[in-house]
From TrEMBL:
PANTHER family: ABC TRANSPORT SYSTEM PERMEASE PROTEIN P69, PHOSPHONATES TRANSPORT SYSTEM PERMEASE PROTEIN. The chain crosses the membrane at residues 61-84, 105-128, 187-205, 217-234, 308-328, 429-448, 460-478. SUPFAM superfamilies: MetI-like. It is a multi-pass membrane protein. This is Phosphonate transport system permease protein. InterPro entries: MetI-like_sf. It is found in: Cell membrane. Keywords: Cell membrane, Membrane, Transmembrane, Transmembrane helix, Transport. It comes from Methylobacterium persicinum. It comes from the Bacteria.
Length: 507
């Protein structure tokens, strides 16, 4: 008699994740160390209520948009080229996975060693991971497209010609929708790059918070939200070439160091080469003696803290999304409350997690708590917004109940599979962000990466970044396995069509 393992259902998977988060709580650092967090919060809110718009540095806004436009343009263009062989080439898939598994901040910290604090660093830090992300999503869009146009092509038509004339016209709209969302992500990434010294809005925002200029900080936040909220007005088909040319002209005057060539050679031939090899001792024993303390004192504890942070944030995100999505659903919020709920969730999801964590850090002090709050708010806003859109599409029966009964017995059971699909999809992204919060002082893998780069131990930094990428890829693979096990792998989780475009979600 053949025994088969029972397949876990929605309840089983949800229970496992909840128990894992509960098990992480006793070992997580959740302390509040500031003396007056409420008073600090009120000062921050006061800055939003009475913003000082004249204090906003105009060039920081221009640089934020310029880095995003050029970074996304290069990344999307490269991603489109990689998307064509993506499904057929394992090498391309592995290269794209490596690119997208490293966060923009980590790319920027490495690129700064060659290009310094320049526009080249900012543009490439966005373009490299976005190339991997776009290649994956564009490839999936291509695979899902109608193939009828290919069947009427004459025999012998080349692959490039077939794609350009038979497939691209049908796919262009979906590519444009996804790329528009990716531009929103690029602006968030561009702002965050300011926290490590690049001249974007994040740089002036950090300075304003450090010096207690909350009115200026509030104005910067409102300007950023306005940029995100109006992107569909100023990003049009006819305006894209103008934006790209204008962004290139508006970049900071110092594009890089005069000695970029020697710096690049030194980076690859010396800086990131393990120390024993640089000393001429490449024996396995010496390499293990160099790597062992990195593994035991940095990779293992950093990975554990990253997973703990991500697991707690994932479950809090789930709870937050279940609470928030009725705010944007017509049957729950009504015609009056629904617009306010949608604006609230759009603001929450438009705020970069890193910036939210920085703000919470000023209010609560250094611990995992600011990072958990930031990750949970941002991702619950995204999933809640999407769930509200799906709830509006449910065909309720005429005698459907109202209130809590409608939520618990009619709506949530129908949406729970889609909810888990969104949540498992965001898991990899939550882990990716958890790693970089080490730059803010949380002892995740990013904490050790930042320390190694500060000490100019770039060989150690590259090993730690590679470990971060491997953990991210492993979680992504596990997430795909769970989605396949639950038979929710084909539910929409990205921006690949008109309905999803309206939701504003992406890869």
């Amino acid at each position: 008699m053949r025994l088969t393992m029972p397949v876990p259902g929605y309840r089983g998977i949800s229970g496992w994740f909840a128990l894992a988060a509960l098990a992480c709580l006793p070992v997580a650092d959740l302390h509040v160390t500031t003396l007056h967090p409420l008073a600090d919060l009120m000062r921050l809110l006061g800055g939003l209520v009475r913003p000082d718009f004249p204090a906003v540095e105009g060039w920081s806004v221009v640089y934020t948009v310029a880095f995003a436009v050029l970074g996304v343009s290069v990344g999307a263009g490269t991603g489109l080229a990689l998307a064509i062989p993506f499904a057929r080439s394992r090498t391309v898939r592995l290269a794209c996975a490596a690119l997208r598994s490293v966060h923009e901040l980590f790319w920027a910290l490495l690129l700064m060693q060659v290009f310094g604090l320049s526009a080249t660093t900012g543009v490439l830090a966005i373009a490299l991971p976005y190339a991997g992300i776009c290649a994956k999503v564009y490839s999936e869009i291509i695979e899902e497209a109608d193939l009828s146009a290919l069947r009427v092509l004459p025999p012998g038509t080349g692959a490039v010609s077939a794609f350009a004339f038979a497939r691209l016209p049908d796919l262009a709209g979906r590519f444009a929708d996804y790329t528009l969302y990716r531009l929103e992500c690029g602006m968030r990434s561009s702002l965050v790059l300011g926290f490590i010294g690049l001249p974007t809005m994040g740089f002036t925002l950090e300075s304003a918070f450090r010096q207690g200029r909350y009115a200026e900080a509030g104005a910067l936040l409102l300007v950023f939200y306005a940029l995100i909220g109006t992107r569909r007005l100023w990003v049009r088909g006819w305006s894209v070439p103008l934006l790209v040319v204008g962004a290139a002209i508006a970049l900071p005057p110092s594009v890089g160091h005069a000695d970029v060539g020697p710096s690049l050679v030194r980076f690859f031939t010396h800086d990131i080469v393990p120390a024993p090899l640089r000393a001429g001792d490449g024996t396995p024993a010496s390499l293990w003696a160099w790597f062992r303390p990195i593994l035991t004192e940095q990779i293992l504890p950093g990975t554990a803290q990253t997973l703990i942070l991500a697991q707690i944030a994932l479950v809090v995100t789930a709870l937050g999304a279940l609470v928030l999505f009725p705010l944007t659903a017509r049957r729950f919020a009504g015609p009056v409350g629904r617009p306010f709920g949608r604006v609230l969730l759009v603001v929450v999801r438009s705020t970069p997690e890193y910036m939210l964590a920085y703000l919470c850090l000023q209010l609560l002090g250094p611990s995992m708590l600011p990072a958990i709050i930031a990750l949970s708010l941002h991702n619950a806003g995204i999933i809640g917004y999407l769930m509200g859109r799906h709830a509006d599409a449910i065909p309720y029966r005429a005698d459907a109940p109202t209130g809590l009964d409608l939520y618990a017995y009619e709506t949530l059971p129908r949406l729970y599979g889609q909810f888990l699909a969104f949540l498992l999809y965001r898991w990899e992204l939550i882990l990716r962000e958890s790693a970089i919060f080490g730059i803010l002082g949380v002892t995740t893998l990013g904490f050790y990466v930042d320390a190694a780069i500060s000490e100019l131990r770039l060989d150690v930094a590259v090993v730690l970044i590679a470990a971060t990428a491997l953990v991210t890829v492993a979680v992504d693979a596990f997430s795909r396995t769970l989605r396949r096990t639950l038979r929710i792998n084909d539910l929409p989780t990205r921006l690949s069509g008109p309905q999803a475009a309206a939701c504003g979600e992406g890869g």
